[in-house]
Every structure is written in structure tokens, then in C-alpha cells.
Fold this sequence. Notes:
The complex is a heterodimer. Chain A is mainly alpha-helical.
Amino acid sequence: MKWIxxxxxxxxxxxxxxxxxxxxxxxxxxxxxxxxxxxxxxVVCQNEPIDSSNAGVARDLRLLVRERLVAGDSNDxxxxxxxxxxxxxxxxxxxxxxxxxxxxxxxxxxIGVGGLAVFMMLFRARxxxxxxxxxxxxxxxxxxxxxxxxxxxxxx
Amino acid sequence: xxxALAYLPVLVVVIIGAFAYWGLQGGRNPxxxxxxxxxxxxxxxxxxxIEGVASPGLATADLKTGExxxxxxxxxxxxxxxxxxxxxxxxxxxxxxxxxGINYKDRADDARAWLEELGNPYLAIGHDFSGRAGIEWGVxxxxxxxxxxxxxxxxxxFTGPIxxxxxxxxxxxxxxxxxxx
Lengths: 156, 181
């Protein structure tokens, strides 16, 4: 009984939305199609790439991507084709352009400001630690320096 | 300088708070996809009519006739379309509107039966069995309705059924377009 269960477990493979009849004969093109499909959002399910979505539109788009690739389009041309119809929204990775500068640069900016703040705090902490404010008068300070100098000389 | 710096956390909290407040506002639908086709000319497509239905097919040229046109994407298998159909029929009866349809991923028999049962308010219907024209239009699901102005430019895209509150919003958008043209 256990053995039968094990056999079935080994036979089980991850469920792919890509159906056998969609797969291209050319493995290189198919690889590219899979790569593109993984980066294209399914417009119905929205948080799933078309590569793993079972929605009808996702299947249509997968077939379309393959069709474009077979016709000789580059990956970017395929993306452009989709963006022209569905907008940047279909891309999981938004393009770097003026309207998305804030999106892309904000993390760098925030980490930069945070890093600078931490650096400044550490720097200041070190400076205050080395220069302890003293209430000594000039004469007392001179006397103290003399004692310290004398002590240093005594050390081996 | 030090003083100003002390207020920085407050500023950060205010900015984050403003975004959170914006995100909590009602009426904002995060699932709504902005259309890439607004203020673009209608896509190139040519569809045959549905077999056995009197309405002719639909192609790009039919939307560049110098008249404002509503393009309704529907299917017989789409339940909200059924509710919307009555509203669209009423709208075409009471207002001077040019309504055409794209029958999306539907079998001719089913579409014909559906139109026979509910009536056919469409001047022309393109039969998009493969859904390819739907992709050209950036359709994500049915029903969807586009307002195309006289020059053949897409000026509005409405997702979901034109019923109830949706009808009010669609009519508002339509009135705005008509007032502008």
C-alpha cells in the first residue's frame, strides 16, 4: 500500500498551465516564450503570470507570445506588442522611465538617507566619546597633562 | 539644522499616513486596470458577422464614420452581459446612440440564440471566436464597453456591466464625452 502511494507521489509532477499543444517544437524559442510568459501578468487573475494561469485570456496571450516569436520578434518586441494593448500593467517589472523614476529610485534614496544618518550618528558618537567635556581650568589641565606624560614615560 | 532634522520622522509619518489614507478611500478599485488605449485610435481588426444573425460584421473602418460609437464586448456565456443587455437596449431606444458589438469567444449558435431571446440592439456585431480582436482591444474580460469618438479615437473604457451604479457612471462618462464633442 505504502509502495503504491510512493509510486504515485513520484509520478506526480508540478501542474503547469502551459498545455502540451501550446509548446513550440523549437526548444530555444520555447525557452524564450516561457521566460516572457513568466514576466507577463495575466489581466484577469492579476497577480499571476500568464505562464501559470489557467484563464482563457492567459492561454490566448501565451499562444500570441509564441506566435510572435515564431514570426521572428525579439523578446522586447513581444513585450512592446503587449504593452501597446494592455499598458505597462501587464509587465511584472515596470520599465524605467520618467513616470516610474520615483518607483525605482525611492528605495535607493531611502537607503542612502538612512545610511547617511547612521554614519553621521556613529561619527558624532565617536567624536563626543573622545572629547569629554572637562570642567578643569587651564592650570589644572596643564598639571593633568604633565602627570599623564610622566606616567607614559614610566611605562615599559 | 538639528531642529529641522528632528521633525523629519514626523514628515515621514505624515507621508506614509497620507498614502494609507488614500489607499483606504472607498471608490478606488485596485483591481481596475488602466487602459493603455485611451486617446489612441481604435486598433486594426476585421471581424465577420455572426452566422445567421442579420447584423453585419465589424471592422476598424466602421468606427471611423464621423459618429460617436459605443463598442460593447459581450458573450452569451457571460451572465452580467444578460443584465447589461436590457440597459443597453433601453439606452439605444431613448438616446441617439450608435451601438456595435464584439461577440467575444462565443459559438455562433449560442450567440444567435442569445440575441433571438433578448433582442438585438447592435448595428453591427463582429464575431470574435478566437478572442484575437479582444486582445487588440486590450480586453481582459466581458462585459467591457468602449466609447469611440467621431474620429475613431477611444475616449473611454468601461469594465464590468452597465447596470445600477455602473450605469450611472457610464452615463456620466458618456455625457461628458458628448458635451466635449
